[in-house]
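Here is an idea for our session: we take a single protein and study its fold together. Start from the sequence, derive the backbone structure tokens from it, and show both lines together. Once you have written the record down, we can walk along the chain together:
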Amino acid sequence: MKAIVLIKEGFEEVEALSVVDVLRRGEMNCELVGMDAMRVTSSHGIEVSMDRLFDETAYDADVVVLPGGLPGARSLHDDERVIDLLKDFNEKGKWIAAICAGPISLEKAGVVDGKKYTCYPGFDKEIPSGIYQDTLTYVDQNIITGRGPAASFQFAYTILEKMGKSSEKIAESMQYPYLKK
């Protein structure tokens, strides 16, 4: 199984890196994919090295992850390559995961229409086609969403579980006692 985390300037580092950390601990191939550069600065001024740049091989992944953070989430939303990828993943029933402000791209791609989701409070106003849920994480069909930075680990463990991997031992080793049962 392969996961890609799409990154643009101004991304929320906790939401992106916790996913990479948890999935790699779960022995999944998970790559940070720079949309425009190999070194990208987060919304809090932390420079992070990407594993690779975006190209057509992104379509070979099993799950695509969109972190929040501003202006990163808006930049992903405005990038037609991201929207095209989301549409393709949705048509193929592949997993799509977005957290915080990230779900605004799901709205633009038309993949959350009639589905339940969560996001950072206030961004739900930009996602009128979906059905907002007041919860840390939510899964509806092939869409995994998370509310914000505090939901990052629950979001990451949910992705890992949906990829067919057990998260219990990893959560235990990380001293994370909050897995949903």
